[in-house]
Amino acid sequence: MKKIIIAIDGYSSSGKSSFARAIAREMNYIYIDSGAMYRAVTLYCLRKGYVGNDFLKTADIISDLREINIGFAYNPDISGYETFLNSENVETQIRGVEVSSYVSRISLIPEVRSRMVELQREIGRERGIVMDGRDIGTVVFPDAELKIFMTASVEIRAKRRYDELKGKNMDVDFETIKNNIIVRDITDENRDISPLRRADDAIVLDNSRMTITEQLRWIREIIKNKLNEG
Ligand code: DC
Fold first, then answer.
1. pLDDT < 50: residue spans in the chain
2. What is the CATH number of the domain that holds 195?
């Protein structure tokens, strides 16, 4: 059966990764979390002392880009993919607060973006992948056979994030989380390079009132039609 590329972009906490992961599992495709790649570069920069509160050593970051290898490997124990930075499993570290607070600055560097896009295209060469991010349908794979643009109301996204952090016993405040999401939306949509926007040929999925099961039911039909096309 022919293999396609499924590009999933959308707002923070819109449920992109759960949805993308579930589709990949159903189709036996590779799932690539492009945000994890920007997070891995950020971890590298933190370790090298290239980024901190009041400095960003852009020239050093750019000159090291060829030495930063990022890969993914499937771990059957967790039924999911884990991120590797120069052969080291960094899945846990890239999700931490420190990386989260610097990643948006690192992902603004044009040379970092070009390198990540190059790696992402290499991974997608054979097709048969589901990749999620902010610029997958617009920049990385403008020729993807299926593009989904995910959104949900700010209230709902804030509630999901709040529940997720509460579930991890973190002391969180709903209004702070909601404001953080609003700010991130503005940043993502207004940056100069690769801003978050819906590709003209992307299908919008507003999952404010949909469970993951309903979302999967919705997309199955669309995928079936795509696979039968041409
Ligand atoms: O999806 P996430 O929160 O793990 O993404 C981490 C950061 O990387 C976030 O600040 C947005 C950025 N990012 C990006 O600029 N382009 C992508 N394709 C994916 C993520």
1. none
2. 3.40.50.300
User: Could you tell me the distance, in angstroms and rounded to a whole number, from the CA of residue 161 to the centre of ligand 1?
Assistant: 16
Q: Output the CA 166–ligand 1 centroid distance in Å.
A: 23
Q: Which residue's C-alpha comes closest to atom 3 of ligand 1?
A: 35
Q: What is the pLDDT of residue 187?
A: 86
CA distance 133 to 10: 7
pTM above 0.85, yes or no: yes
pLDDT of 180: 87
Residue 9 forms beta bridges with which residues?
Answer: 133, 149
Ligand 1 atom having least distance to the Cα of 184 = 10
Distance of CA 217 to the CA centre of its chain: 22
Q: Which of 37, 39, 103 to mutate to test ligand 1, by most ligand atoms within 8 A of the CB atom?
A: 103
Residue 206 counted as domain residue: yes
Expressed as residue numbers, the domain containing 86 is: 5-224
Examine residue 65 and state whether it is found in any structural domain, yes or no.
yes
Handedness of CA 204, 128, 211, 9 (dihedral sign): negative
Ligand 1 centroid to residue 38 C-alpha, Å: 6
Ligand 1, CB within 6 Å, residue ranges? 12, 34-35, 38-39, 103-104, 107, 133-135
Please give the distance, rounded to the nearest whole angstrom, from the Cα atom of residue 34 to the centre of ligand 1: 7
Q: Is 229 a member of any domain?
A: no
Return d(Cα 103, Cα 105) in angstroms, integer.
Answer: 5
Q: What is the number of structural domains in the chain? A: 1
Closest by Cα among 8, 6, 17, 20 to 160: 17
Question: Considering the domain boundaries, does residue 111 fall inside one?
Answer: yes
Q: What is the structure's pLDDT at 81? A: 92
